[in-house]
Amino acid sequence: QVQLVESGGGLVQAGGSLRLSCAVSGTDFSTHDMAWYRQAPGKKREFFARISSGGARLYDASVKGRFTISRDNAVNTVYLQMSSLKPEDTAVYYCNLLPNVDWGQGTQVTVSS
Fold first, then answer.
1. Strands 57-59 and 46-51
2. What's the helix, strand, coil split of the chain in %, to 5?
3. Tens digit of pLDDT for each residue in 34-51?
């Protein structure tokens, strides 16, 4: 059974940075494309970044140039480096495989103005 454990969230001021991690177990991590999603209060969960098994990256326009997705196959972990954070980035952040499996608990990111 695949398990996803997100961590690294917190409270940060606008303009600040955070690095999220997502530890993956129960599958051959290196063979999967991975993605980050977020769900803001009162909104649907939305995709915003992905990284292929080969390292190719794709970003939504809302985060392009501010967020960087990366992976370390040696430790079965996908990362999200977030910079120039804005209050509208406030959300619960999730990672998942592509195609998706059961979701983890997510990690809360709150950006104060």
1. antiparallel
2. 5, 50, 40
3. 999 999 999 999 999 999
